Amino acid sequence: MQLHFSPSMRSITISSTNGFIDLMKIKVAARHISYRTLFHTILILAFLLPFVFILTAVVTLEGVNKCSSFDCLGRRLGPKLLGRGDNSGRLVKDFYKVLNQVSTEEIPDGLKLPESFSQLVSEMKNKKYSTKEFALIMKGMMERSEREIRESKFAELMNKHFAASSIPKGIHCLSLRLTDEYSSNAHARRQLPSPELLPMLSNNSYYHFIVSTDNILAASVVVTSAVQSFLKPEKIVFHVITDKKTYAGMHSWFALNPVSPAIVEVKGVHQFDWLTRENVPVLEAVENHNSIRNYYHGNHIAGANLSEITPRTFASKLQARSPKYISLLNHLRIYLPELFPYLDKVVFLDDDIVVQRDLSPLWEIDLGGKVNGAVQTCKGDDEWVMSKRFRNYFNFSHPLIAKNLNPDECAWAYGMNIFDLRAWRKTNIRSTYHAWLKENLKSNLTMWKLGTLPPALIAFKGHVRAIDPYWHMLGLGYQNNTKIENVQKAAVIHYNGQSKPWLQIGFEHLRPFWSKSVTEPLSGKALSILVSQLLDFLIDLYRKDYLLILWKNDSFKPVDSSFSIPIGY
Predict the structure, then answer these.
(1) Among candidates 361, 347, 354, 350, which has minimal Cα distance to 490?
(2) Contact 564, 538 (CB under 8 A)
């Protein structure tokens, strides 16, 4: 195609490429437009037309919904400039209005809700729901899902609480087995420690640790991990306190599994002359009070309005209702100055901790006349574990609590505490502890719910020295998002919470830090000692001519003048 301008610029001829055929001839009137303007206009159009053709082709190839070219701007603005706006925005606004209207309405009783999203889509095609009907159905499905998830969460928390409060079969059988060893094996009953080491139990040049527990395996891990981590384990003395029913098994364990060169003493609460009803009347009342026993051992859902409580708050309430909080072993730490009158400084450890570093520097910390060296729990990166203040433990709507305590005061942790017993004996901490326990009993447990720490927070008020959090890392039994690198750096890690490492509900990635210190029962030297004791027993029977009686009862079968020991022994 060619353009031909006449010399006078009064006509324009459009002809074919070969010039033989004139396609169009345009005459221009000078009175309407100047020749120069017309020339420039035609020149610009001739320049733009190829680009318009190319852009049209690109848009066609890319598609309207996936365009990425510059012309998208024009295609989006064009309809608006021409008055043909996109209706999607108006539709969304209309749908918002319907949702707001439905949010205040109740779901009709007879409305049948689809069981799945695919069923909802299928019914929409078949029944042609209106917008309001669709919104009501979606609301009903969401409310049903939220209700089911909430119920499942509460059921999970209850099951977890029961699992945490129970005794695993393995630990129960271990205790029974060791108790049997105590009654049948003289070595399991040997004196702990040996007579020549008895003076070390009150020697203040040694590092004295106290553990109060009825969990044999947990006590073993605490002692073993401390001995493995200490630079001078021969200077360690462990005082393990347990209840009467566990004493025989606990004694057997440490007699058959010595942690040499450390010294271990095992004592039952029944062996302390000071622990009488006259000295601990409040604790006896705590254990025997019917309403208290019902609170800790009764129905944990009765009276709880689950529709108005969050799962996190419910979990905290369940944790506060653990039966261990009314156990004498859990309150025993408040009587340390009387139970160990010859000791000056001790470190009290809970049974759910693991020692990872040498703890001898704890004895060098200057408590500045304070009684209790503890890690504060109101500061730290972990908002769930390290955000505890008095308001988290006490009911400040109670007039006595509101009058005497500050809700913003920083709390501290039990689990790994340095106690200066000399300074403690000069205070009235024990009497204050008892007085507040009595007040809480009178108020039907309305002042606080959570076990032994709240009365201790009051009794030790003004007697606590904060120590570096490095010494005591908490929360390994609460949540599974604990950072492994932080666990590896801590001197003592504490599995406080329900997910204990010896339970199936324990967190798998945190359990190895505990299980590496587990001692196999009756292993190595202890097993050889048992075999030796058994052989001595058989020889003694033979010498006393009792073998014939046993043989007649099929207890032993002689084979070539040797004896076959029953496997089940």
Answers:
(1) 354
(2) no
The neighbouring-strand residues paired with 251 are none
Rounded to 10 degrees, the C-alpha dihedral 538/539/544/550 comes to 30
Give the contacts of 51 (CB within 8 A, at least 6 positions apart).
none
Residue 183's Cα: distance from chain center in Å? 40
Please report, for residues 38, 141, 439, 455, the alpha-carbon distance to residue 292 in angstroms, rounded to integers and kept in the order given: 103, 42, 14, 16
**367, 432, 410, 361: CA torsion to nearest 10:** 20
* Rounded Cα distance, 385 and 534, in Å: 51
Candidate ranges 32-46, 160-174, 180-194, 530-544; pick with highest mean pLDDT? 180-194
Per-residue pLDDT of 406-445, as tens digits, reads: 999 999 999 999 999 999 999 999 999 999 988 988 888 7
For 154, 212, 311, 364, the CA distances from 317, given in Å and listed in that order, are 12, 24, 10, 38
CA dihedral (439, 440, 441, 446) positive or negative = positive
State the pLDDT at residue 307: 63
Q: Model confidence over 21-64: pLDDT tens digits?
A: 555 555 555 555 666 777 777 777 777 777 677 766 666 665 54
